[in-house]
Amino acid sequence: MQMNIYIPKDRADLLAALERAAKRTGRPKNELVLEALGRYLDEMEKTVELGRFHLGPVKLGTRDGLYRGRLE
Question: What domain count does the chain have?
Answer without folding.
Answer: 1
